[in-house]
Amino acid sequence: MLMDHPRRILIVSSHPLFRDGLKSLLHKRDGARVEIVGTARNTDEAIAALKTHQLDLVIVDHDDTSINRDEFLARFIEDQQPMRVVLVSLKETGPVVVYDRRTVAAGQIDDWLNDLEIPKHPITLDESRRGGMKHFIVVAILIAIVTVLVSAGLEALGLMPLQASAQAVPIDNLFGMHVKVISFLFALIVVFMLYSLVVFRRKPGDTGDGAHFEGHTGLEIAWTILPLATVLYFSYLGAGALAETMRADPQALQVKVIGSQWNWRFEYPDGNVSSSTLYLPKDKQVLLKLSSTDVIHSFWVPEFRVKQDALPGDTMVKELRVTATKTGEYKVRCAELCGQLHATMESPVVVMEANEFAAWLDKEAKSIPTDPVERGRRWSTQFGCVACHSLDGKAGIGPSWKGVYGREEEMTTGQKLKVDDAYIRESIRTPSAKLVKGFTTPMPVLTLSDAQIADLIEYLKTLK
Q: Are 190 and 146 in contact (CB under 8 A)?
């Protein structure tokens, strides 16, 4: 029997794949003669729809255990509308059963399809999933595109400074992989969210609640195992990068690095050669031996990537290996909050060709004066003494050196002492033993040799 109006159909299922697939199939086959008046996700919604709609057909998900079919069919029998109920199973061997209110007898779906003039075509599980698979394919393509764009954009920003050491290579490679993973996770979240908001937004007239999901064991296992595997893999890569940065060269040049509040000092293999600028040979591994005279400092040259703390105490020497690969001038910074002038604790770094570095080191070694007074003047500059002690009588962080030798100073304890050789040696070796009145901050412990202290005393004698 042909109908002169669109078939009003209600779909009953809590599974969106069933609902959306069936709606798509019906509209595709006979869109002009089919009107989907709504969908119901449970028995209560289905019974309520029977009261509010004049229906020609109700399609029920036979495999949905959340639908109480006995209760629904009982209400269907009581209803006086001349409609049919079709129970459809998407399983390949599942039933397709038609219940007619007038006969309450099972029939074949082919008869119903003939009445509605819809071409015969069995509804299969693959067909119902085809629409969902299309969404996943589109989303996968969008995720790939967004991942590439975000990753390229982040790399174009130049987040890392110049790469100027061999140790920077594995670190930058690891950082680049992190950026790619971050880009993928960003795309995964944002694309799924925006796609769902646009494609699966509530349609006009749809006032029902969303489907209730109890869980998905396979998905939960996947999102536990995959992140765990990713973290373990990056741990392996990180361990490899760390080993690469610590790879030792038995022929490495050793340089002592001494941090003090608030300056850096660098001592080279010849004990008499030191400077406040770090000079390094290109393409030669340098083993930095770091220590501190007061508090914790941290040696860091951003272009070299690697960083290491400098700890106080003779037994707490830390090591850091650097192989500079680009000549030029850089800057070492303190990466550990170390006091009031922490922000100013910087020193130049100069990377030279190997032959130029050898020439500089030889020149510095030969430039050491033979006069002890001139040597003392040199040590006062290289060890940073003049940063705290003025030479013109003006007060500084420490007492002025002008006329200090032989002068009588009053200590914070009230004791008066003469500034002589013994007092100067004690003040350098144990700065906090005796403090001059008016100065409460002890100077840092300096690693001067006995000969260098003797030179410094000779220099102080000249500052009348």
A: yes
CATH of domain 372-461: 1.10.760.10
- The number of residues in the chain equals 464
Are the beta carbons of 94 and 62 closer than 8 angstroms? yes
13-66 residue pLDDT tens: 888 877 777 777 777 766 667 777 778 787 778 777 777 777 777 888 777 777
How far apart (Å, rounded) are the C-alpha atoms in residues 104 and 84? 9
CATH 2.60.40.420 location in the chain: 253-366
pLDDT tens digits, residue range 90-145? 665 555 454 444 443 334 434 444 444 433 444 444 544 565 678 888 999 999 99
CATH 3.40.190.10 fits 7-123, yes or no: no
253-366 maps to CATH 2.60.40.420: yes
Query: Strand ranges (DSSP E) for 51-180?
Result: 57-61, 84-88, 96-100, 106-107
Nearest to 385 by CA among 338, 437, 445, 438: 445
The residue among 105, 100, 42 whose CA lies nearest residue 71 is 42
CA dihedral sign, ordered 139, 142, 146, 148: positive
Residue 369: alpha-carbon gap to chain centroid: 53
Query: What 3-state DSSP class applies to 232?
Result: helix
Q: Could you give the count of Cα atoms lying within 13 Å of 176 in the half-sphere of its Cβ?
A: 12
Q: Helices 125-156 and 168-199 sit at what angle, rounded to 10 degrees?
A: 140
Omega before residue 262 within 30° of 0, cis? yes
Q: For the full predicted model, state whether its pTM sits above 0.85.
A: no
CA distances from 290 to 54, 197, 250, 297 (A): 87, 56, 18, 9
- Under a CB-based contact definition with an 8 Å cutoff, are residues 72 and 101 in contact? no
Band of pLDDT at residue 321, cut at 50, 70 and 90: very high
Single-letter amino acid, residue 301: V
Q: Which of 269, 287, 296 is nearest to 324 (CA)?
A: 287
- Rounded to 5 degrees, φ, ψ at 439 are -125, 110
Sign of the alpha-carbon dihedral angle for 325, 330, 335, 338: positive
Given a contact cutoff of 8 angstroms between Cβ atoms, the answer to whether 198 and 139 are in contact is no
More confident residue, 413 or 244: 244
> What are phi and psi for residue 37, nearest 5 degrees?
-75, -15
- Report the candidate in 79, 31, 24, 16 with the shortest Cα–Cα distance to residue 52: 79
